[in-house]
Design goal:
Blueprint (H helix, E strand, L loop, with lengths): L1 H7 L4 H17 L2 H15 L4 H29 L10 H12 L4 H31 L2 H24 L5 H27 L13
Helix pairs in contact: 1-3, 2-3, 4-6, 4-8, 5-6, 6-7, 7-8
């Protein structure tokens, strides 16, 4: 019932209160679970009809369908799993390919490998934190995570350029990050239009 009330949102708050009152009666009759399940199904059916519901669905779709998979890709990239950013062998494959072209950079590349690995993992963790902040509508945290990810990406670009490594993965990451942040900015503006009275600087605001 709590989840159903959240899904109804502010636009259907009175309806949710009425259903919660009926839930007390259903609880006494011993049919609490079927009644709550029916309310949840009704709330899910209602969500695409209202703009607030569409906002919630779009917000979760962005977090679950884009940011979390991107976090997984960043972590897999760091440990060497093949993906479209780094080619068939990940970060260490990039270092191995560079060392194969000339043995003089091997020491520098191996010394830089832990730092590069940490930066890639930090990108993955930042994507997870960004997804959490997005569904919470914690916009100050969203801004902080966006700035952190931009700084890490820029640092990666500098390191890989100085070490004469293939910087194409970082350039692809930069483009992807720009698209992600632009989309999140649109979501933030949508939220501000739907809830103009909400204090945007308050962390932990929930639907």
């Amino acid at each position: 019932m709590h989840l159903a009330a959240r899904c109804f949102g502010e636009s259907r708050r009175e309806w949710a209160w009425a259903m919660e009152g009926e839930f007390a009666v259903a609880l006494e009759d011993g049919r609490a679970l079927p009644f709550a399940a029916g309310c949840l199904i009704a709330a899910w059916r209602e969500m695409p009809v209202t703009e607030e519901g569409r906002f919630v669905l779009a917000n979760y779709a962005l977090a679950l369908g884009v940011l979390i998979p991107m976090a997984a890709l960043q972590c897999l990239c760091a440990i060497g799993f093949p993906d479209f950013f780094t080619g068939p062998t990940g970060l260490y494959g990039t270092l191995a390919a560079a060392n194969a072209q000339g043995p003089y950079w091997i020491t520098a590349h191996m010394a830089a490998a832990p730092s590069l690995l940490t930066l890639w993992l930090l990108l993955g963790v930042a994507h997870l934190r960004l997804a959490w902040a997005l569904v919470e509508c914690d916009w100050p945290c969203v801004v902080s995570m966006g700035a952190l990810m931009a700084a890490v990406t820029a640092t990666l670009a500098v390191f890989m350029t100085v070490l004469l490594l293939d910087a194409a993965p970082v350039f692809l990451e930069t483009i992807t990050l720009a698209i992600e942040l632009t989309t999140i900015l649109a979501v933030a503006r949508w939220h501000g239009r739907l809830f103009p009275g909400v204090v945007m600087s308050k962390p932990g605001w929930r639907y």
